[in-house]
Write a structure and sequence with these properties.
binds adenosine monophosphate, alpha+beta, 11 strands, binds magnesium ion, about 475 residues, five-stranded antiparallel β-sheet
């Protein structure tokens, strides 16, 4: 077995993109303790979980003793946060360790969050509390099991020190995560703002090589890159909408070029279906509400297109014309992915014109606000002839009857529905209670259970009923805090 110090990292980001990072070392972790290790992911990466558990393995996972092949850097990026542009964000408390080329041939970044202050830290302490790092682990792994492109979580390591947050001292931790890259819309904004077209071109070439190599042979590779990212994001946001995921902080620095979901902060899953649902305490205006996500994604992609303009044509008007045309394709792409996904969730065959059924459904759900996850899951019972369970989700069940009749007349396939409509999602109250036990009492068992349930979201299992239930009418409204 390869010792932790012998793991071979590649560094194409560092090699190609001088000017877009600062070499930096992780802060010491006085008493590192492995809290969670994703053994399946370790295997996929070609890493031996037993090696990651050794003191040298913990040196790697905390960034305090990385192999010689690795070069730890803080990545630079800019970004629009809640619509306001910040020219210099960057990894304030994170480091890229390097890239692993796994046995499956895929290149993935290993990235550490909570590794100490960097030159991009501004006022922050560079640290991360255990609770939010466990939260990112649970939700990103749940997203992966739901089939949504996402960064993945390899490990959470407690550092042995405390970090100060609003609620008082909390145990400090790092999250080791993987991603097909950490290139963000904000990375391109940063590169464009240098005013050096060569930096921007190197970044775009790197992104093409990594994510969309077939763009390289086309007449307009950078316009083609823009198109691919628009398409990947349209598909991603449609998936979020299908499962009721609210990202909560869709700033341009939290949107990837790869089309993977990234940076799980104040995110949440819908209980009641509500286009206006907002869970983040800092999102006062509801900018990142559930129903606003497609529009925000398009707004962010417009910022990406702006950053690319110098590469699209020598004449700026021409560049704007080209970019606008691609950007306008977002709506069609998104709507097609959204409607096709809902058609599948409703068990209707390919080629079936589901538009009228979907339009009426959108109105019904927005007005009556049944539990999002259970609504789709229980529809399969209705397709089998028992409408009782789905009707029970409505305050006034008769409001659903006309829609149920018209949908059933289309002959939905109940078994196909069970394969695509999850029964278990990381419901906010379940996640909070499991994290509470882990952080306050050091009891990891509830969290391990939850992870295990969420790993098989479509498989209904006896004895797991409580994992499928909403919080209940007496539960206080759920709010997430950005104090991560
Ligand atoms: P986020 O909201 O987590 O996506 O982070 C936005 C920006 O704030 C990024 O530049 C982060 O690196 C930075 N940041 C967040 N928390 C901290 C912290 N505790 N210390 C330093 N920088 C931070
Ligand atoms: Mg971020």
């Amino acid at each position: 077995m390869t010792a932790a110090t012998e793991i071979a990292f590649e560094n194409t980001f560092v090699r190609d993109l001088e000017g877009l990072y600062q070499p930096w070392d992780a802060a010491p972790a006085p008493e590192p303790r492995l809290v969670l290790l994703n053994e399946a992911l370790a295997h996929q990466l070609g890493l031996d979980p037993a090696v990651l558990r050794t003191p040298e393995g913990l040196g790697l996972l905390t960034g305090t003793a990385v192999p010689e092949s690795a070069t730890t850097v803080a990545q630079a990026y800019a970004g629009h946060q809640f619509g306001n542009y910040s020219p210099r964000l960057g990894d304030g408390r994170a480091l890229l360790v390097g890239e692993l080329v796994a046995p499956d041939g895929q290149r993935r970044d290993l990235h550490l969050k909570g590794s100490g202050r960097t030159p991009f830290a501004r006022g922050g302490d560079g640290k991360a509390p255990l609770g939010p790092m466990l939260r990112e682990y649970v939700i990103s792994e749940a997203m992966h099991a739901l089939g949504v492109p996402t960064t993945r979580s390899l490990a959470v390591v407690a550092t042995g020190e405390h970090v100060m947050r609003e609620r008082g001292p909390e145990p400090g931790a790092l999250l080791a995560r993987t991603a097909s890259s950490h290139l963000r819309v904000g990375t391109f904004q940063f590169a464009a703002a240098t005013g050096d077209t060569d930096v921007l071109r190197r970044l775009a070439d790197h992104a093409i090589a990594r994510h969309h190599p077939s763009c390289a042979g086309t007449d307009q590779p950078y316009l083609e890159l823009f198109r691919r990212v628009v398409e990947a994001q349209a598909a991603l946001i449609a998936q979020w909408m299908h499962i009721g995921f609210v990202h909560g902080v869709m700033n341009t620095d939290n949107m990837t070029i790869s089309g993977e979901t990234i940076d799980y902060g104040p995110c949440a899953f819908l209980d009641a279906h509500d286009p206006g649902a907002v869970y983040s305490s800092i999102d006062q205006g509801g900018r990142y509400a559930y129903g606003n996500q497609p529009g925000i994604a398009q707004w962010n992609l417009a910022r990406f297109g702006e950053a690319l303009l110098p590469l699209l044509a020598d004449d700026q008007d021409e560049a704007i014309r080209l970019a606008t045309e691609v950007l306008e394709g977002f709506a069609d792409r998104y709507l097609a992915a959204r409607d096709d996904g809902y058609r599948v969730k409703l068990g209707l065959p390919e080629g079936f014109d589901a538009k009228p059924v979907l339009e009426d459904l959108a109105t019904l759900l927005a007005q009556q606000k049944p539990d999002h996850t259970l609504f789709f899951r229980r529809l399969a019972s209705a397709a089998r002839g028992d409408e009782g369970p789905v009707r029970a989700l409505f305050d006034d069940p008769s409001t659903a009857d006309d829609w149920l009749a018209s949908w059933r007349a289309a002959g939905p396939d109940a078994d196909a529905m069970d394969r695509v409509n999850p029964i278990y999602v990381p419901r906010n109250h379940l996640v909070e209670s499991a994290l509470g036990a882990a952080v306050a009492d050091g009891d990891l068992e509830p969290l391990q259970w939850l992870l295990q349930v969420l790993a098989h979201p479509y498989e209904e299992r006896a004895g797991y009923e409580r994992f499928a239930q909403p919080a209940g009418p007496d539960a206080p409204p759920f709010t997430t805090f950005c104090g991560t």
